[in-house]
Specification:
By secondary structure, the chain is α+β, with helices and mostly antiparallel strands. It contains 13 helices and 20 strands. The strands form 8 sheets. Strands 1, 2, 3, 18 and 19 form a 5-stranded antiparallel beta sheet that branches. Strands 11-14-15 form a 3-stranded antiparallel beta sheet. Strand 5 and strand 6 form a beta hairpin. Helix 2 packs parallel to helix 5, helix 5 packs parallel to helix 8 and helix 8 packs antiparallel against helix 9. The longest helix is centred in the middle third of the chain and has 22 residues. The N terminus is likely disordered.
């Protein structure tokens, strides 16, 4: 039975209340769900994609975002899965693309299915209630009669599909180009026809051109040439990026970013830079459109210089800040906090090459990423442990996400930090070994053993006049986590590594 223990209105031992916070509700301690067997990453990706066999992955469409294990044994009784572990059993644009690109070497047809579905759902008009824009890739796809969709519409005013994401569109370009560049046969996918949301027949070439046009409009209309976000409706998602908690974007003193004006996140700019380069290569190599390729490369180079000039700080030896917001006069302000986002720069072409300054920045970022404040037994913390808002169980302010660490590990490896990357691989594999789950995230505490939140802790933030669910249990089978474990396993197998001697054993 879930939620059996309710504590009085006092924080658990070791839990940090920030200034102006108090517990809003009694802490809920959830029954721990025990899993005796190590889970199979292959079995779970089959569940997430609705496939019955590995050869069918992608046949029935993209991956949904998460699932729970159906039952667990507790005191020799079968216990059904509680509702709070079944929140995301639907298709999210960003999530589906992330899974597809991480598995593109093993299951390329998943990238095909995911980008095709997103092209069919791509924005075809401007509609503020959906935050839809021409060419924009959606954030969340639910039937409007889905109970969760009904609740979100009543409470927040969302219409469906909901497009409140700023990073799904460049991720779409990256995934589509990655698929098309794999083989000559895959290039024919650009001629694949689909029917858009207005009933018009289009091709995948049209979809990528629409996505590029959306990016160009956003960059061109921004004073600094950044890809910013700001919710179009009063109760839209405030942080329209993967760290979408309302308090994830803040300043060093803990002050929340100004959501009344545009916010630019570091990794969104980096992903957009790579998307522009990917598209340039596609237009040059496939369409033989050198002029279009040249223009896209020019845009990318301009964005690179903007990223370096705006997001780099020499504080603490030099690092890339989380992002920027604007004061009441519209002036940019750096959010000078150390986050895992800086590690995404390494898994990009942004700092490639032997230029002394690029090398210095790469080395400084790698040093910060592997510092005691960022590195945890499970991987890389989303927020450094010495930052004001760090809490080890917080959704995006201190927890460790397996996909995030995997992404950073790939970046470390591509710049020659092989031992460090292998160590990060070991840590994320060990999370599954210990928890017997593919958790959405794990705690970023100082323990020597990976662990997940077992409590729900909701506080009232007097300064910001709102509640904050600081701790909550993660989803048990998160698609991003399954994908990176499967991808890591495949990579190690190609190297001839015996997983039984790699400190972990993952099926």
């Amino acid at each position: 039975m879930d939620n059996v223990e309710r504590n009085p209105l006092q924080p658990p031992m070791g839990f940090k209340l920030l200034p102006g916070e108090h517990l809003l509700l009694p802490v809920i301690t959830h029954e721990k769900r025990e899993f005796n067997d190590r889970p199979s990453s292959l079995k779970q990706i089959l569940r997430l994609t609705g496939a019955g066999h590995p050869d069918e992955i992608g046949k029935y469409g993209p991956s949904i975002a998460a699932l729970a294990f159906e039952t667990t044994t507790l005191a020799n009784e079968i216990v059904e899965t509680p509702d709070h572990l079944r929140l995301y059993e639907i298709f999210f644009g960003r999530d589906g693309l992330r899974v597809a690109i991480d598995l593109i070497s093993s299951f390329p047809e998943l990238a095909r299915a995911t980008t095709l579905k997103l092209a069919e759902l791509q924005g075809v008009e401007d509609n503020a209630n959906r935050e839809e824009e021409l060419g924009r890739i959606l954030h969340e796809f639910r039937d409007k009669n889905d109970p969760i969709a009904v609740d979100l519409t009543e409470r927040l005013g969302w219409d469906w599909p909901y497009y409140g994401s700023v990073d799904a569109t460049p991720e779409f370009i990256r995934t589509l180009t990655a698929y098309c560049k794999r083989t000559e046969e895959n290039r024919a996918f650009l001629s694949q026809e689909y029917v858009d949301r207005q009933g018009n027949t289009q091709t995948m070439t049209h979809a990528i051109e629409m996505a590029l046009a959306w990016i160009n409009r956003r960059l061109s209309s921004n004073p600094e040439g950044l890809l910013e976000y700001k919710a179009a409706i009063p109760k839209g998602i405030e942080n329209q990026v993967w760290k979408d908690s309302w308090d994830a974007y803040h300043h060093a003193d803990g002050t929340i970013a100004n959501h009344e004006k545009g916010i630019a996140s570091l990794e969104v700019q980096v992903t957009t830079y790579d998307a522009l380069i990917d598209a340039a290569e596609l237009f040059e190599d496939v369409f033989d459109q050198t002029e279009q390729g040249r223009e896209l490369r020019f845009q990318a180079e301009r964005l690179k210089q903007t990223i370096i000039s705006i997001f780099w700080t020499e504080d603490k030896g030099g690092y890339f800040v989380l992002g920027t917001d604007r004061d009441e006069h519209g002036q940019l302000r750096q959010m000078k906090i150390r986050t895992s986002n800086m590690g995404h720069v390494l898994n990009s072409r942004l700092l490639d090459g032997d230029n002394a300054e690029d090398v210095r920045m790469r080395e400084s970022v790698a040093s910060h990423i592997m510092s005691p404040e960022m590195l945890n037994v499970s991987g890389i913390r989303t927020l450094a442990s010495d930052e004001f808002r760090f809490r080890p169980g917080s959704y995006h302010n201190g927890s460790v996400w397996l996909w995030d660490t995997h992404h950073i590990a790939k970046g470390m490896r591509r710049h020659g930090y092989h031992e460090e990357a292998d160590e990060l691989d070991r840590r994320i594999l060990n999370v599954v070994n210990v928890t017997r789950m593919f958790p959405e995230y794990v705690r970023g505490d100082a323990s020597d053993t990976p662990s997940v939140n077992q409590q729900t802790i909701i506080v009232w933030d007097e300064i910001n006049q709102r509640e904050n669910k600081v701790d909550q249990p993660p989803q048990e089978v998160q698609a991003w986590s399954v994908a990176v474990i499967l991808a890591t396993k495949k990579r190690l197998e190609r190297r001839g590594v015996d997983l039984d001697t790699y400190d972990v054993s993952i099926k």
